[in-house]
Design goal:
Blueprint lengths: L1 H8 L20 E8 L3 H14 L3 E8 L1 H9 L6 E3 L3 H9 L3 E11 L1 E5 L19 E4 L4 H12 L9 E4 L2 H9 L5 E5 H7 L4 E4 L8 E8 L5 H11 L2 H9 L6
Parallel strand pairs: 1-2, 1-3, 6-7, 6-8
Antiparallel strand pairs: 3-10, 4-10, 5-8, 5-9
Helix pairs in contact: 2-9, 3-4
Length: 253
């Protein structure tokens, strides 16, 4: 981090480390680009707004999508400062490649839920019912929500015919398939079902059949301003962001 700051201070543009307030403390300025899991779309809009309000010289750009896709973008050199994913495996992939710098911290958890058309016309009550539920929407296997859904179905001994499965690129696309009537049921995160409101009906998955998603956040190696990126990570781990996350239905880390 010290080396990164020294390099950043040599640039022409001001960074968080060379702008100070009247009392001598660092004043954050600039833009921080965050790649965040699709399930964080709504809550990270609030987290970003709070961070900008606390630091008027900062703009936060949030790029959302499947964690797997976002990781690939970082591997290919996309200019990203902070990564916030829906699973630890994807973050570990970047950590092992030296593309994120520690510490990697889990800031929230999530769980799976079955969603159906409003009113649940097929009477789905469990994962087992998905085997004959018509068209079932699941996330792509490369997305954490898809891997977790596959894991939950396998652990429950449920086999949904491949011809009945439609895969969404991320959890928002998967939820949309059910909300828009293109699928009869699906598996998404609890938080996304809550955002959908009356557009879907939610059927809980029992704890013994569920999979807990753990959300890690870290600074991306080569961040434009490491100090600014680290400050955003610390904000995500702080009480204001925690309150927003809990209000959106995310569990504690």
């Amino acid at each position: 981090l010290a080396l990164g700051l020294a390099t950043a201070c040599g640039a022409d543009a001001p960074t968080a480390s060379d702008v100070t307030t009247a009392d001598g403390s660092a004043e954050l300025r600039g833009t921080v680009t965050v790649s965040a899991a699709a399930s964080l779309t709504e809550v990270f809009a609030g987290v970003a707004a709070d961070f900008e309000a606390a630091h008027p010289g900062v703009d936060v750009t949030v790029n959302v999508g499947s964690s797997g896709t976002l990781a690939t973008q970082i591997e290919e050199g996309a200019p990203v400062d902070v990564a916030a994913f829906a699973d630890e495996a994807t973050m570990t992939r970047l950590l092992d490649a030296g593309l994120v710098v520690g510490p990697v911290e889990v800031f929230a958890t999530n769980e799976l839920v079955i969603v159906t058309e409003p009113g649940n016309p097929r009477g789905i009550t469990s994962l087992a019912d998905l085997a004959g539920a018509g068209t079932v929407a699941l996330c792509a296997s490369s997305a954490p929500c898809g891997a977790f859904a596959d894991q939950a179905l396998e652990q429950a001994g449920v086999e949904v015919p491949a011809s009945s499965i439609t895969r969404g690129r991320d959890v928002k696309a998967t939820l949309g398939a059910v909300a828009e009537g293109d699928a009869d049921a699906g598996i998404v995160y609890v938080t996304d079902a809550a955002v959908a409101g009356d557009a879907v009906a939610a059927v809980p998955v029992p704890a013994e059949r569920n999979v807990v998603a753990r959300y890690p956040v870290a600074v991306v190696d080569g961040a434009a301003d490491p100090a600014l990126a680290l400050a955003f990570v610390e904000h995500v781990l702080g009480p204001e962001a925690r309150a927003l996350l809990e209000g959106a239905g995310f569990g504690p880390p």
